Amino acid sequence: MTSVSIPLNPLKEKSYMAQIITIGGFFFIFGFLTWVNGTLIPYLKIACELEEWQAYLVVFAFYISYTVMALPSGKLLERTGMVRGMRIGLLIMASGCLLFVPAALTRMFPLFLSGLFVVGAGLTLLQTAVNPYITLLGSPERAAQRISIMGICNKFAGVIAPIILGTILLNKSDLLVTELKALTGLAKQERLDELAQGVILPYVILTLILVLIAWLLKHANLPLLPVENSAKKDIEQPLTSQQLKSFSLGFLAIFCSVGVEVIAGDTIGNYGLYHNFSLDIAKSLTSYTLAAMMTGYIIGVIVIPRYVSQERAFLISNVLAIILTLVVLFTPGIISIGAVALLGFANALLWPVIWPKALKTLKGKQLNKASAVLIMGIAGGAVLPLLYGWISHAYNNQVAYLIVIPCYLFNILYSFITQQKIQSGNLTIKI
Q1: Which of 124, 195, 203, 210 is 20 to 30 A from 4 (CA-CA)?
Q2: In sequence order, which residues have a C-beta less than 8 Å from that of residue 110 and are 6 or more positions away?
Q3: Closest CA to 268 of 117, 120, 162
Q4: Does residue 271 contact residue 34 with C-beta atoms inside 8 Å?
């Protein structure tokens, strides 16, 4: 049972349902642009003639931008406020999508990576604003529930994105692979150029959509949260040792949680190929992981906090994930692949619980800085999949899943640490 008294006077959900729906639309955008990476990995591996470990630079370039841009994003939001910062983030993302046009025309992998980095930079700014915004847009006890609703929007986009983009970019992919094996020299290069240019239209459409949403956001009537008013007026208070410990551990928990989430979603396609699945099937396996994850979010919305506290849900999720990882490691073929997909279910409630845990002792200007530091933890999605790629190259794709077990063990430790009584100023938390 959790009892929280917090001085930030969060807004009530019932008064701002339309605004919560608007934020849900942003999370849909996050999901679509994030989880198309699962399709871009095999697509660019073919189009740019990459080794498997090089293909994982797709997720590295995308997620490392969170580390590079998180602190600048926090500084920018102090000047612009959360709502204007969201609009700027959308426009940055649009410019990143537009970079896919010259990348496709020249078939230069570094240009594709540059586009992914810029998209990630825009998402960094958007998420630095949106995550604390939705956390504070209602009562603290239901923060994980609200973020779970956002997760449903995010993961629904993640389910359909690989299917849509996979159909466009890798249509009849097994025949394509057979065709490329038969071609040599200039004929092969021309066919690869044609394949690469298939990405232009969908990314031009995404660019236009992002610009349109940035324009419409002017009329969304998103409220200025009390914390934003106080952040402008109050002198920044130094962090106490307890506050520093709280969000530092939160950073590590996000690093681990995003890393395992990306591994489960973005490596499953290549893992299917490792088990001799056809590319026509493997290219959409990310959708199964995201469908499992969306199911986890839906369950979270239903049971938190009515039947189970968000803290207990976090602990159960990590224990379940370790069990599923053991199934991945020690079972053959389709069962092992199914367990990777089910990791999406276990991962669903990790992110929603960490945010309210890590931010609960912070206020005013402290919140912007802490949010930026937590966003930097998304770098786990850059580093851990790349390590997975190296291990799979040195040993094999199945053994490489060992990398996720220490992450879940840390989260369990984090869960026990944050179940202690915390007292900070006029904020008292009992769990």
Answers
A1: 124
A2: none
A3: 162
A4: no
The tens place of each residue's pLDDT in the chain, 431 residues long, gives: 333 333 344 555 455 677 778 788 888 887 888 888 888 888 898 899 888 888 899 989 998 998 888 888 878 887 887 778 888 999 999 999 999 999 999 999 999 999 999 999 998 888 777 777 777 776 666 666 677 778 778 778 888 888 888 888 887 777 888 888 888 888 889 989 998 999 999 999 999 989 988 888 777 667 665 544 444 455 556 666 776 777 788 889 999 999 999 999 999 999 999 999 988 888 889 889 989 988 988 888 888 778 888 888 899 999 999 999 999 999 988 999 999 999 999 998 898 788 777 776 666 566 666 776 777 888 899 999 999 999 998 999 999 999 999 999 999 999 888 776 443 333 332 32
For the entire predicted model, the pTM comes to: 0.77
What's the CATH number of domain 3-430, 3.40.50.300, 3.40.50.360, 1.10.10.60, 1.20.1250.20?
1.20.1250.20
One-letter amino acid at 135 equals: T
Per domain, the residue ranges of the chain are: 3-430
